[in-house]
Structures are given as structure tokens and as C-alpha cells.
Amino acid sequence: MARLQARFVCTACGSVQPRWAGQCPDCGAWNSLVRADGVASARRKQGTGERALSFQPLSAQTPMPARLLTGLSELDRALGGGLVAGSALLLAGEPGIGKSTLLLQMAGRIAQSGHPAAYVSGEEAPDQVRLRACRIGLAHAPVALAGATSVAEILAALAAGPPPALLVVDSIQTMYSSEAEGAPGTVSQVRASAMELVRFAKANGTALVLVGHVTKDGQIAGPRALEHMVDTVLSFEGERTHRFRLLRCIKNRFGPTDEVGVFAMTGEGLAGVSDPSGLFLTDRAMPVSGSAVFPAMEGTRPMLVELEALTVRVPTGATPRRAVVGWDGGRLAMLLAVLEARAGLGFGGHEVYLSAAGGIRVSDPAADLAVAGALVSALFDSPIPAGTVLFGEVALSGEVRAAPHAALRLKEAEKLGFRRALVPEGVAGLGRLRAEPVPSVADLVGRLRAGRGGRARA
Q: If you average pLDDT over residues 296-317, what whole number do you get?
């Protein structure tokens, strides 16, 4: 009998090596090679018979895919109208953010509408899922519930009856497939498990939803190929200490990307917020320095967000800190350099702290002018007048560039009672909202330096 040759599999990239080494020769990871037990070494060979490939014209008639409404309007908004039959969706987010609660609500409401739904939990016991369903009022929803981690067992159970309209797998990092080697959560196991589940969904017209873990950097854990295999990628964002959550669409083959749904965590689960503009603003009687209101565009929806800045003088020789919450730290460094080079402001002797109120993360480039206004207001201790919004992209030359969807931003600001907007040149006012063009950051500094009630600390 021939002796089986030992093989070693990299847990980081899935490559197979004939001998052990301290470093994987393919991806460079250290101490990632583990001995394979040979379970998947004798994989079933595919049929050798080949059939001729037939091409179809691009003009062939293709019906629009059917949509399955989830019963959650904000989730349907982020998906572009609902779930598509036979599609695969990946939902990622930090631990405790509410992913399982959201998907259990979705499965319960779809099941209550008459469509069969199955929920497979690999992290929690079925009793834990039932307790959560009781808390959110879905104890009697006809959802098929199971606790399993073997993909083969899941597919065998689903093949015993009619395929469900919805299949939720929580989470893909806990699943393992007999077609791959390694422990659950490794690159090879995540890739193989997701491939089998997606294949089942495509063949049976089942909407598949996979829950994905994230790393400490906020990236989706596992191979990047997982995001390519699915049709839709959703990111569930927000601070666990805040009530509000943002469901951001990163990839969508059946609808628009960058769409956002807003939810509020309540005692009965997650509730959709149809008009979120006023949620991220602070209600105060008098304006304070370092605060600026920015009309952000999240997908097709405008939202007013408050950006807060604080500058603190540090002793001579000390290294000033730069702390950012809810915005890009690299963009803050660029904006500070532009303010120093083009407007003559020196932040080198000050610590700078910047935060987006309400736990929201702002990625709109048009926030540059609002951030610059908050920084200048904090530096000169001169509050921006109440009822003012700011938006515009700041270039390295110091000029303020135009931002898309200016009319939508101004319309949302005017609806909430704002009467003044500092905007790029060429933007007209709307109704009772007066638009004042700001051609450069130097002009913005001049406006705020001349504001009343403040004293320069620069």
C-alpha cells in the first residue's frame, strides 16, 4: 500500500506545501502552515465529458428579477427594492452591532408574509435565537430554525423538502465543508463553504444571506474572494453605545450602490428611521465654537450631520495629537496642511480632535469645507452663526470645488430651518435659504475671523 504523503496547508491563503516551514512561501505569513489530515485530498473528480459552449446574443430578452420584500423599508431601500431570488448577500459588521437581530426580523417578517424562510445559526444555540425572537415579538413567526456548522448537513436537510425563499447563515466563518482542509474560519474553508451555499441558492432560486465577521480594522474577515462571489455586500455600521445604525450598501449587482438605510435600536429590535436628518444634530440654544453642520449625501438621501472640532494648545516641544472619529484621518492631515499653506493658519502647536456626532461615519468628500469651518471656528473660538450649513470639496490649491447634488442638500437644509449656506461658487440659493459662495479656504477663514463673539487664539 502506497504511503500517504504529508501535506501542509496555509491557514492564511490556503496554499498547499509538501513540507512544513516557518513562513508560507506564497503569502509570507508566519507560523500559518498546519498539517492536513488528508480529508479533502481525494476530492471527487468532475465529469470528463465536455459539451460545446453556446453563445447568446446580448440583445436576448431577459426578464427583470423578482423582488422579495423584507418587511423592513430601510433594508429594502438599501437593497434597491428588496431581495432578489437566487442572489447571495453578505452582511458584515462589528460584534454586537445588531446583525443577528436585523436578519431574524427580516426572516420572521418574510415568513409571516407566506414565504418559507430558514435560519441556520452556527454561533448561537437554537434556544438563544428563540429568546431573541420572543424579545422582538416574533415568537410565533413560522421560521425554520436549526443550529449547524456543517455545510453538507445544511444542504442535505434543505434537499429533503421544497427550497426556502430565504436562507440565512449566521455566520460563514463558523461553517466548514468536507471539500476543503483546515479549521472553520480559515481561508480555504470560508471559500469552499460559501461556494457550496451560493451554488445551492443559484440552482434553487433561494435568496441567500451570509453573515460575515470583520477584523479590528473594520475589513470583512476571510478571503477577498468572498466579496466577489456574492451579489450584494452590506456593511452594518454605528457605535454600540448609540441608538442609531447605518446599513450601507457597498456592492449591488441588482441595484444602486452607496445606498444607506438608517435604523434605531429599540427594546423591540431595530426600527427603520425614514427621516434621519435631525437625528445627528445637537439641539442647543446658543451656537458653540468648533461646530459645523454638513448636509451629507448617503446614496440618494441627504442627511444633516454635525461635525465637531476641538483645538488645544500644547507646550513647546511636545508632539501634538490628531484624533479623528467618524472621518478619514488622512484627509484631516491634508486639510490641516492646506489651511496652513493657503490660509496661513498654524495648527502645529495645537492638538486637533475631530468627531462626527451621533456615531455616524462621513465619507462624502464635500465635507471638506464643513470640517475646515469647524477647525477654524475652534482655533479662533468664534462660533459659526446659527442656521448655517457648509459643504464643498477643498483642493490642495485651497480652492473650493463644486459638490454633486447641491440642490438636494440645500432642500434638506431649508426643510429643517437653515437660512444660510456657505457653498462653492455657482450654487444658487433655494427658497428662504441664502447661498453665499466661498471660492477658497482663505475666504472662509476671513469670514469666520470676522465673526462676532470670538477672540483669536492663534
A: 89
Handedness of CA 447, 288, 246, 420 (dihedral sign): negative
CATH number where 306 lies: 3.30.230.10
Position 41 scores a pLDDT of 45
Predicted TM-score of the model (pTM): 0.77
The amino acid that residue 149 corresponds to is T
Helix (H, G, I), strand (E, B) or coil at 443: helix
Question: In this structure, is residue 53 part of a structural domain?
Answer: no
Same domain for 291 and 385?
A: yes
Ranked by mean pLDDT, the top range of 45-49, 284-288, 416-420 is 416-420
Q: Write out the three cell numbers for 23.
A: 513562513
On average, the pLDDT of the chain sits at 87
**Residue 456 counted as domain residue:** no
Co-location of 112 and 187 in the same domain: yes
Residue 156 has pLDDT above 90, yes or no: yes
User: How far is the CA of 256 from the CAs of 87, 163, 212, 315, 420, in angstroms?
Assistant: 15, 28, 21, 50, 32
Residue 16's DSSP bridge partners are: 9
Mean pLDDT, to the nearest integer, of 108-136?
95
Residues 154, 162: Cα–Cα separation, whole Å: 14
Domain holding 125: CATH number? 3.40.50.300
